[in-house]
Specification:
With 161 residues, the protein is of the alpha+beta class. It has a single domain, classed as Alpha-Beta Plaits (2-Layer Sandwich). It is built from six helices and six strands; from the N terminus they run βαααββααβββα. The strands form two sheets. A four-stranded mixed beta sheet has the order 4-1-6-5. The chain is globular, with a radius of gyration of 16 Å. 30% of the residues are buried.
């Protein structure tokens, strides 16, 4: 078992905009957490509407579904008009996702050193943690990638309760 960044989407949604800081070496203004939050919301929170009003309303065709029905956003096309936020009937889209430039998390502490992650230290809602933990769907912990887990109740699970 290795340490992973854990994003608690339920806590994360209590913020109006993400204010975590990032220690990305090459671009200090980078907020690498934003694309991780976006991917987490699209992967686990989004209800994957068949008609996808968010995709339909996008004036520049920046949103599309991948082969698994997960929405992806082309940052180079997105003009941050936020029409998709208004069109989403379930509130999946978060205002803070939509910057024109797209930052990238470089997993700064994932090289085996025991250092503190600035993003985790600066999250006011404590929605981020760095833990030695593995995926556990029964505990609502889902794998986003090899270095990130997301704590979220998947909407399909709620349908059957």
């Amino acid at each position: 078992m290795s340490k992973k960044i854990v994003i608690d989407m339920m806590k994360c949604r209590t913020c109006n905009s993400c204010v975590v800081q990032c220690s990305y070496q090459h671009h200090p203004g980078n907020n690498g957490m934003m694309p991780l939050l976006e991917k987490a919301a699209f992967s686990f929170t989004c209800r994957r509407c068949e008609d996808a009003p968010c995709i339909e309303v996008c004036p520049v065709d920046a949103l599309e579904k991948d082969e698994n029905g997960v929405i992806t956003r082309a940052a180079n096309l997105c003009v941050a008009c936020k029409s998709c936020i208004m069109a989403c009937p379930f509130g999946t889209m978060m205002n803070s996702f939509f910057e024109v430039r797209k930052s990238v998390c470089d997993y700064c502490a994932m090289d085996g050193h025991d250092v503190k992650l600035l993003c985790i230290e600066t999250c006011p809602e404590k929605a981020l943690s760095f833990e030695e933990i593995d995926e556990d769907p029964e505990q609502n912990l889902h794998k986003l990638n090899d270095k990130v887990l997301v704590r979220e109740i998947i909407w399909e699970k709620l349908k059957h309760e």
